[in-house]
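subagent[fold] <- orchestrator: predict structure for attached chain, return tokens only, no commentary.
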Amino acid sequence: CKKDGPTHGHEGNIHFSDLEHNNFGFGISTMGISACIGPGPVIPANWEKEKKLGRALEPDERIVALAMFGDGAASNGVVHEGMNLAKAWNIGTLFICLDNEIALSVPPKEQHGGIELANRAVGYEMPGIPVNGRDAVLTYLTHHWLLTFSRRTAHPSLVKVGAFRHAGHNL
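subagent[fold] -> orchestrator:
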């Protein structure tokens, strides 16, 4: 941990928030919970921004949520609840599934039948794109496009980032 990092050297985890900058962080460890909690603060954050500006927001001014979870959490009910909520309430959210092809200790075939996780977006009528996370430019462009889409349309989207685990869980 870096002393000047987001956790100020206190821990090696990413459990932090910065409310001043509308970063609601990962306050809890429950797998997949960010997908359910992430979209919620977007609604009042956009209301506050409208109130501050004294007018309706232009599409490019909207605040959107980024909700990250791993391939193991992708099968948890809270992830589906979050995607359903974002779709039903038109909450601009980019759901990011980090797929290292081993859900804690279970291979994809046993975890979710080996399906393409990006295809789960179809059930919520949102775009879902798989991207090779080892291609930095393609990963950046995919995230940028989906984030812009979600911001301009107030509609959720999903990206599945293919990654590679070099060591065990949480190392």
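orchestrator: received. Logging for downstream: The chain has a mean pLDDT of 83. The CA atoms of residues 49 and 92 lie 15 Å apart.
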